[in-house]
Design brief:
By secondary structure, the chain is mainly beta. It has three domains: 360 residues, YVTN repeat-like/Quinoprotein amine dehydrogenase (Methylamine Dehydrogenase, Chain H, 7 Propeller); 308 residues, 7 Propeller (Methylamine Dehydrogenase, Chain H); 142 residues, Immunoglobulin-like (Sandwich), CATH 2.60.40. Helix content is 6%, strand content 40%. The protein has four helices and 68 strands. A hairpin with a 7-residue loop joins strand 64 and strand 65. The longest helix has 24 residues. The chain starts with a helix and ends with a helix.
Length: 921
């Protein structure tokens, strides 16, 4: 029984240990371990919208924004509750393309849209969920046939008013609609007393304190009298420019100096937030005008009845004032004028930066408005967008409603060292757009559509960005020191550009000259460029890379490499051609003796891309091929990077399926073609082919763009820096010998799952350096619990552990699992000793006792027989036979007991002898 119990206990112990391991640790965080598409600007949330324009916007005090496009095929209104980052499309199809929108400032649920031509107005009281059309715009005398502006009042006594400014038959008019009336209808205000008639009513605005003063304002132009007027309506007296309402000096003629403005074609009104119509000291208004004589177009200020031109020479389409700062959107281009002192005697005005204006169209109007502390703007036409300024209108970034069906052709990507900031360059056919991702995507630069641009960022300062035009006749560079947020500088180089690399914090950059073997340097962010220096490399330069300060390396278009260690003053060239003779991607661990250069170029026969190594200072005459058997046929290298000791090479196939991949080795300085040191992560049907280099690396993450499909791809290499964490057995553990079988018990080896690894290699050796490997076990597992593998005598993964021997073990993710990881830490365990052999047991059998001697008594003397006398017997009595008594128990002789005892002793002795002399299997 003892043997059987021991075996059961051994098996049970293994089961208990294995189960305890599976419950011992929580799963580690996961990674994808494959190429994945990053989220980019798209039509989702209306970041992009094909053919989009922003014809008008309306903003409520709670920040809710409504927008209409005015595009003939777009019959909808759009709503944003997050500052315009994303938009929802209202469900109502108006059967016309709205080009005017208004919202009640204190109630974002009250919103109206209108069609300016052949007027039609719709209104919603529930934030755009449901809509109703208003009756035809008619009044006591006239019927509208064109609208120019629309506004909704703040709530007054629970009622909002809607007003539209327009004309009927070339007669100016303003119509008003009581939204809260029991039987609402349009009121034609032009037939009321005091209205200064004209050809057009171009703008209308309610007082921000309408609940107190019941005042509405308007701008009209009188073509006959050749003048433009600012007018006031009193809801209390139901009259324009009512002397009884202290409006005796109204209307006010708006003049440019002493000159009447007779050719006004457009107007916009911005009232001061504290405007109070009932107090002439609080009547501060700003009017933007568009005129046929553009010299009169501009911004006009009215302090009650005193008017003053404060910015002219530019036609103004829209205007907005927050009480301190004034912004005005231009009519004829995408310029925005701004002033931080519009109440000064002589206010100062300036324009948004040339490359930081909203959208990119140069001949369309801009609508602007304050949204809290930000200025928002909308533009129309090609490249138009909804834009935001966080610096009072000094600079704008396009964040949504960008006029594009998709990203078009992806040209390049640049990433900060920590991966927190991503830049992406794309040509959507309308514009060359530089997009930036911090918390959300925004377009920070828009230029004319062009595919021939590259993007570079300073390694030590991700806010330093260069966008460069490459190729023949390409000398343009755009530079920003603030991540493109507020300002760009246009630079011109001395030569055409092939490639660009940036050093340190970005002040120093190097330009590889197009169709040449020379390099030019700037030390002042591209403002000036030095004379190009010859590198000595054979053939034209394909790409250039800055390894560190003053250390540069170039790869030629035909398989050669050159380097500089003094910032382009002097160059050394390797006269030995790579085995691959095509366009060369190159990097290095350093440029001192003993460092390694790593390069990849397509082979001379165009059948394979080779990764090759050159040791600096070596006396050899050939490059060392380190991955030829792995890469395969028809691949070309499109990028290379050495990061934290890991070498990555981005490749693209030349076959029709355009499958691309990244290959990498964790030990580039010792990698061999067939050493099992390379891993690959393939994509599917992507073209990672951006030139001259397509690979970027940041904080363990690889980035590239697909030029065929507008996608940004990334791969997080979570298996490059550390192997699996070991769980059991602990370091220095002892595995016992089974005393019955004489063999070591099987052992459960366990480790935590790194990321989403699926296949592992478990390796055993007799030495710490694993030069004497005794077994490698490959195991697959997709569990997030610790992985356990049982190894030992009799296990599926059999290994005959020898007594008194120390073993070492470690684990890594296998190449197919999906890539090699580093080996884990090494642990050791020792097999226990065999039980000590005891001397054989000697059993002495005592001699049998002598048989007992039996002494018979002497024979007695014979006795003479007596005389026998027979008598006649009496009759026999009844015979009663009693039952016979039980015979006495037999008495076992003593010698029998002796024999039994001796036999038992012999059996025990034989068993002990067998056990002590049995050899282990």
């Amino acid at each position: 029984m003892k043997n059987k119990i021991s075996r059961i206990w051994g098996v049970g112990l293994v089961i208990v240990l294995t189960a305890s391991l599976l419950l011992a640790a929580a799963p580690v965080s996961a990674g994808t371990l494959s190429w994945g598409a990053e989220t980019i600007p798209s039509t989702s949330g209306k970041v992009l919208q094909d053919g989009a324009s922003v014809a008008d916007i309306a903003i409520a005090d709670d920040g809710t924004i409504y927008a209409v496009t005015g595009v003939a095929t777009d019959n909808y209104c759009y709503k944003s509750t997050n500052g315009g980052v994303s938009w929802s499309k209202m469900t109502q199809d108006f059967s016309f393309a709205p080009d005017l929108v208004a919202v009640a400032p204190d109630d974002s649920d009250v919103v109206a849209v209108a069609l300016a031509a052949t007027p039609e107005v719709w209104i919603s009281k529930d934030g755009g969920s449901t809509w109703g059309t208003l009756s035809a715009i008619t009044g006591d005398v006239t019927t509208a046939d064109a609208l120019y502006d629309m506004a909704i009042s703040p709530t007054a006594a629970g009622v909002n008013y809607l007003a539209v400014a327009g004309e009927d038959g070339n007669v100016a008019d303003v119509w008003k609609f009581n939204i809260g009336a029991a039987a609402p209808s349009w009121e034609d205000t032009a037939d009321e007393i005091g209205f200064e008639g004209g050809t057009e009513a171009l703008a209308v605005a309610f007082s921000p304190n309408f609940a107190s003063d019941y005042v509405m304002t308007a701008v009209s132009v009188n073509g006959t009298a050749d003048d433009t007027h600012f007018q006031m309506w009193s809801e209390s007296s139901d009259a324009w420019n009512d002397t009884g309402a202290s409006f005796s000096s109204y209307p006010v003629e708006i003049k440019n100096g002493s000159n009447s403005i007779e050719d006004t074609t457009g107007a916009a009104i911005a009232l001061s937030p504290d405007y109070l119509g009932s107090d002439d000291t609080m009547r501060v208004a700003f009017v933007g005008l568009t005129t046929s004589t553009s010299a009169y177009g501009g911004v006009y200020r009215l302090k009650n009845t005193t008017d003053k031109v404060i910015d002219d020479g530019i036609n103004i389409y829209s205007i907005s004032y927050d009480g301190t700062n004034l912004v005005a959107g231009a009519t004829d281009d995408h310029n925005v004028r701004r002033s931080d002192d519009p109440l000064a005697t002589t206010p100062s005005f300036s324009s948004a930066g040339t490359y930081k204006r909203p959208g990119m169209t140069s001949a369309k109007p801009v609508v602007v408005a304050w949204n809290g502390a930000d200025v928002v703007a909308g533009t129309q036409g090609t490249g138009s967008a909804f834009s935001v300024s966080t610096d009072n209108g000094k600079s704008f970034n396009d964040i949504s409603l960008v006029d594009a069906a998709n990203m078009g052709t992806m040209l390049d990507v640049a990433v900060s060292a920590d991966g927190s900031t991503v830049y992406m360059l794309a040509n959507d056919g309308n514009a060359l757009s530089l997009w930036k991702m911090a918390s959300s995507w925004k377009r920070v630069l828009a230029l004319g559509a062009d595919d021939g641009y590259i993007l570079r960022v300073a390694p030590d300062d991700p806010d330093t960005v260069y966008v460069a035009k490459t190729g023949a006749a390409a000398k343009s560079i755009y530079y920003s020191s603030d991540g493109g947020e507020t300002k760009w500088f246009a630079r011109t180089t001395r030569a055409f550009i092939q490639d660009l690399t940036v050093e340190g914090d970005g002040d120093v950059a190097y330009m590889a000259v197009y169709n040449a073997a020379t390099v030019s340097k700037t030390t002042n962010t591209g403002f000036t460029w030095g004379t190009a220096k010859a590198t000595g490399v054979t053939g034209n330069i394909n790409m250039i890379s800055s390894l560190s300060e003053d250390n540069l390396i170039v790869g030629s278009a035909s398989g050669y490499v050159a380097w500089s260690t003094d910032g382009n003053s002097n160059w050394s060239a390797n006269s030995v051609q790579l085995n691959g003779a095509g366009p060369t991607q190159v990097t290095a661990s350093g440029l001192a003796d003993g460092d390694f250069i790593y390069a990849s170029a397509k082979s001379a026969d165009a059948t394979a891309s080779l990764v090759e190594r050159w040791e600096m200072g070596q006396s050899g005459t050939t490059w060392k091929d380190i991955s030829a058997t792995f890469v395969g046929d028809n691949y070309s290298a499109t990028g290379i990077s050495l990061t934290e000791g890991v070498l990555y090479v981005l490749t693209e196939t030349s076959t029709a399926d355009n499958n691309s991949a990244v290959i990498r080795t964790l030990s580039p300085s010792s990698a061999e073609p067939s050493s099992g040191m390379w891993s690959s992560v393939a994509s599917a049907d992507e073209a990672f082919s951006a030139t001259p280099t397509a690979l970027r690396v940041s904080a363990g993450k690889l980035w590239t763009v697909d030029k065929d499909l507008p996608k940004l791809w990334s791969y997080s290499d979570t298996l490059s820096t550390a192997g699996p964490a070991l769980v059991t057995p602990s370091h220095g553990a002892e595995v016992q010998i089974n005393p019955v079988s004489g063999s070591a018990y099987t052992q459960a080896f366990s480790w935590e799952r790194p990321s989403k690894a699926t296949i592992y290699q478990l390796r055993f050796a007799l030495d710490y350096d694993f030069t004497e490997v005794v077994k490698t076990v490959t195991t697959a597992s997709t569990t997030d619990d610790p992985i356990a593998e049982v190894v030992g005598p009799g296990a599926t993964n059999a290994l005959a552990f020898m007594p008194n021997i120390t073993y070492y073990w470690k684990v890594r993710v296998a190449q197919a699992g999906p890539v090699f990881s580093p080996w884990s830490a090494t642990r050791m365990f020792t097999i226990g000793a065999l039980p000590e052999i005891q001397p054989p047991v000697e059993i002495i059998i005592p001699p049998a006792p002598p048989a007992p001697q039996i002494v018979l008594p002497p024979t007695p003397a014979p006795v003479p027989a007596p005389e026998i006398i027979f008598q006649t017997p009496p009759p026999p009595p009844d015979i009663i036979i009693p039952p016979a008594p039980a015979p006495p128990a037999p008495i076992t002789p003593a010698f029998i007991w002796a024999i039994v005892i001796i036999g038992a002793i012999l059996v025990i002795a034989v068993v002990v002898l067998i056990v002590r002399t049995r050899r282990p299997v």
